[in-house]
Amino acid sequence: MLLAVDVGNSHTVLATFDGDRRVGSWRVTTQPGATADELLFLWRGLLRDAEVTGVAACSTVPALLPALRQLLDSLAVPVTLIGPGVRTGVPLHVDNPREVGADRVVTALAAHERYGRRPDGSGRPVVVVDFGTSTNVDAVGPAGQFLGGALAPGVEVSLDALATRAAQLRSVELTVPAQAIGKNTVAALQSGLVLGFAGLVDGLVDRIAGELVAQFGAAPVVVATGGLHRLVADSCRSISERDPDLTVHGLRLAFERHQGGTAQR
């Protein structure tokens, strides 16, 4: 059984796979100061008696990488830690490939394999909207190439900033408002954050899709993922698919390619 671990700025997602079928999934708060022993204790508590035969991991938290590497080095199973220099099979068509986060690379890999391949074997572009600590809108070409994208603050980050910087505003429950015109402070914040971010996403997707059509002659499939996608995606007009497991599926695919030695980058 493969264990896929996506260490994000706010949350860490762990998922187990039997072949290409996800059989378990957990979301926990990321602790940047955790030691390798603490990580191992957490993983064992979640996995219980599951027999892990391989691990694929990525991290966007530099402070946690030494502990994560130490833990992975101690395991007696094949391990793939996605990062610069690790082959994933995803061509990075950007100015500086080393700047691209490992999570964005493996998410692009899964997006192409799950949504970018037509039944006849031809490819089509995909736009991935990842709702997390940041809101990422990334473009994937019809051959699976990562083309770049747009990065914006996440919904929760924006709420925290408002509550911190605006004396008369406060943190509120993030939920979809009944209408755009808020009749009180709470409703107005919910409208601005949830519906506002939906408008931001729709605007970015529209521009990125236009560029993809101009370049490849085909409209992209637009896929939502990330921990906050359920909050915002339903208010977006541009999103056609929802796949909360996209990144861990990408880790599974990267593991298979890396361990099989077939990836080209």
TrEMBL record:
Keyword Nucleotidyltransferase tagged: no
Family designation: Belongs to the type III pantothenate kinase family.
Localization terms from the record: Cytoplasm
Pathway participation: Cofactor biosynthesis; coenzyme A biosynthesis; CoA from (R)-pantothenate: step 1/5
EC number: 2.7.1.33
Catalysed conversion reaction: (R)-pantothenate + ATP = (R)-4'-phosphopantothenate + ADP + H(+)
Binding site for ATP: 6-13, 133
Name this polypeptide is given: Type III pantothenate kinase
Cofactor(s) this protein cannot do without: NH4(+); K(+)
PANTHER family assigned to the protein according to its UniProt record, in alphabetical order: TYPE III PANTOTHENATE KINASE
Chief localisation class: cytoplasm
Gene that this polypeptide is encoded by: coaX
Binding positions for substrate per the UniProt entry: 101-104, 185
Major enzyme class: transferase
Molecular function per GO: ATP binding; metal ion binding; pantothenate kinase activity
